[in-house]
Amino acid sequence: MENKLYFYNSLTRKVELFVPNEDGKVAMYTCGPTVYHFAHIGNLRSYIMEDLLEKTLRYLGYDVKRVMNITDVGHLSSDADTGEDKMLKGAKREHKTVMEIAGFYTEAFFNDCAKLNIKTPDVVEPATNCIPEFIHMIEALLQKGYAYESGGNIYFDTSRLKDYYVFSNQNEKELLIGVRDDVDEDENKRNKSDFVLWFTKSKFEDQELKWESPWGMGYPGWHIECSCIGIKHLGEYMDIHCGGVDNIFPHHTNEIAQSESYLGHKWCNYWFHVHHLNDKAGKMSKSKGDFLTVSLLESKGYDPLVYRLFCLQSHYRKPLEFSYENLDNMGTAYEKLVKRIGSLKKEGQVDQEKFAEYREQFEAALCNDLNSSSAITVLYDMLKADISDATKYALAESFDEVLSLNLTAAREAKKADNGVDPEMERYILEKIEERSAAKKEKNFSKADAIREELLQKGIVLEDTRQGVVWKVARTD
Ligand code: AMP
Ligand code: ZN
Predict the structure, then answer these.
(1) Which of 44, 329, 380, 438 would disulfide-bridge 446, Cβ 3.0–4.6 Å?
(2) CA-CA distance, 34 to 109, in Å (whole number)?
(3) Residue 8: helix, strand or coil by DSSP?
């Protein structure tokens, strides 16, 4: 690994050199979706940028194991342990069972991911698969004195920790305002920042999913699931934990509190957070009702990969504002880019020296706090450079392992469209131009010879008022 990856660690609030626990291996965890509705394109911004991180790691040669949970229970409509269970809310809205809702929206989520070329993590685990593990961890926390029972629920006791607010850009006073403002403040809590590990007595009598536990029938809190699923699949030491910035508090703060109290040592070294996609009205959110989805963009004629490019052109640590105007500009840029790459002659010798030189530049951009827009600039520079088509094509193919914009696959797709591959198309267009020039010079025999040559290749030229058009000759 020539290039060393640096990225911003929210825990230390610094851009840091990434050094995994085990040489060459990366244990990576991502907070998965709460599957009570479609993912909006804001959620998907987080997943696109996390996909970029994973693919950059793989490009640099790391062996990555990536785990993602699916939140199908326990995430309440307020992150402060109050409000209705989001899953139950979704089920009521659609007159379905919670499990039906979970199944439907999990599939919808991965369909959207596929359209955006987001790789499915190595392990995907729904929370409802892991109830015994949650109970085991909560029992251990009770035994160690980090948790207490009150009013029937089990709470984590944040006063036991020296440093609960580990992401200390979080101002304790500010954080507590959110809790205080909440009319449903939970009187069972010993400290305002305590949070629920297991609900038994809750105000949601109609909670559909409940399990036996040592504390009675109930269900887990949201935070415990990520601690447990992470430890279950990645062991006691995690290298990178990802999520959107809204996950920093309380979700990730609580995950660290539970996991480190349970394990008795530091859990995860690097915390990677993606800033929000906003629309003109502010942060995009599912609970706002009307939100932008991949299907909506498709129904308006956008290729989902144009949205991927839109995200990659901005830095993950900056809020991004969505507008159709910006997306349109991105669409034009994408089309040109794919066309440019599609017109490259793929055959021929790859200049290994140039290949290594540009790959090095591309990696360096990504290693600089995942600067994807600079990486794309390297792609553009490379396409303009004085190097062979075959080298350019090989580089585009290589960069696309990380960018995942179908840069070279689009060429094949085009062939399927009209039965002619881009190289042939380019050749036809060149010949048409040559023929027009010959006609202008009144060299009609040359013009006819060109028409004949194309016909031999199965291409028919027609002179129309709008100019020359070409067609694939009918074979019947
Ligand atoms: P959820 O399905 O609500 O649990 O959220 C899934 C992921 O999307 C989490 O990592 C959130 O932090 C992230 N997220 C939520 N809203 C946005 C947004 N507007 N922009 C970017 N990421 C978001
Ligand atoms: Zn999580």
Answers:
(1) 438
(2) 10
(3) strand
Nearest CA to 228 out of 27, 29, 21, 11 is that of 29
Pocket flag, ligand 1, residue 247 (CB < 6 Å): yes
Cβ–ligand 1 distance for 246 under 6 Å, the answer yes
How many whole angstroms from 262 Cα to the centroid of ligand 2?
Answer: 17
Q: What is the mean pLDDT of the chain?
A: 90
* pLDDT at res. 189: 93
30 CA distance to ligand 2 middle (Å) = 7
- Please compute the mean of the pLDDT values over residues 213-221 and round it to a whole number: 93
Q: What string of DSSP letters covers 196-231?
A: EEEESS-S-TT-S--B--TT-SBEE-HHHHHHHHHH
Ligand 1 atom nearest to CA at 86: 3
Q: Which one of 227-231, 406-410, 412-416 scores highest in mean pLDDT?
A: 227-231
- For 388, the token pair is 């062979």
- What domains can you pick out in the chain, each with its CATH number? 6-274 (3.40.50.620), 294-415 (1.20.120), 419-472 (no CATH)
Q: pTM of whole model > 0.90?
A: no
Measured by CA distance, the residue closest to atom 23 of ligand 1 is: 43
Where is pLDDT greater, at 343 or 183? Answer: 343
